[in-house]
Write a structure and sequence with these properties.
- This protein is an alpha/beta fold.
- It is built from 10 helices and 14 strands.
- Strands 5-2-1-6-7-8 form a 6-stranded parallel beta sheet, with helices on both faces. It has a 6-stranded mixed beta sheet with strand order 10-9-11-14-13-12.
- The chain is globular, with a radius of gyration of 20 Å.
Amino acid sequence: MKIAVVGATGLVGSVMLQVLEERGFANEEIIAAASQKSVGKKIAFAGRELTVVSIETAIASSCDFAVFSAGGSVSKQYAPLFAEKGTTVIDNSSAWRMYDDVPLVVPEINAESIKETNKIIANPNCSTIQMVLALSKLHSTYGIKRLVISTYQSVTGTGVKAVRQLECEQRNEECEMAYPHKIHENVLPHGGDFLSDGYTSEERKLIDETRKIFSDPNIQITATVARVPVKGGHSESINVEFFKQFELSDVYDLLRSTSGVMVLDSAETNLYPMPLISEGKDEVFVGRIRRDESCESGLNLWVVADNLRKGAATNAIQILEYLVSKQKNNL
């Protein structure tokens, strides 16, 4: 099998290579592709060195799969060219997510939405992935009427430039700014670009992608995204209003039975999800589970995940695993 990783030198791309190695793809032919400035660089992978090639070279290699993490404009330009060669693209950018004919996939929830004709498959936004996975069984059991989401997103969600800004500010050094303001010892209520309605693009993704993944355009959703001076791990305060009544004990049981979710919730021992706990892990951690007493069927959750792993790289490689398994079963 021949697999291209496009954007292999970036934050998510490097984690994609790590997850490929961890999850049984170490012996496959891996093609590391990136922009022209990175061509020729060496990357360690599974005890060997990969030489970074151009995206054009990767396209000409006629890969079976291409996993993208190189930004929306790169995906728009090159994903169709891979697809024309017969390569199945799993794209981590926002470029293709809201196209009706492109499945938006969290494998534990809706892998079956992928058809044989789909040559481009979209990976959801990192904040969306962890939220919908935590809510998936609750939604199928009680029906979500309304969601109010507040996120506390780490600088790694913005990229290398943002990590460097935080590190420079921690050392009290001048640096190139990824954000319009200082991020060290600060919180910015600003994720992505501001839209004409006053929301940001990151907030809009949470709204639109959740509805698409759950195949439910009627869920009422509002969101506020904030950037916090944390290097890894996104945190979310989620307020849910259901159509049906629930018992809190059943909520715990449903969460514990959800594949990929781990419940950490003990007030007596101060146990709850935190970015430090999620670092380097693939699980979505859920805690601070309690009724919202201000409405009839309301629930509050605190959800944390490593945004570079389940929020990006791991979810993409899980999609790859599903496709490979499906191919083998059809042989």
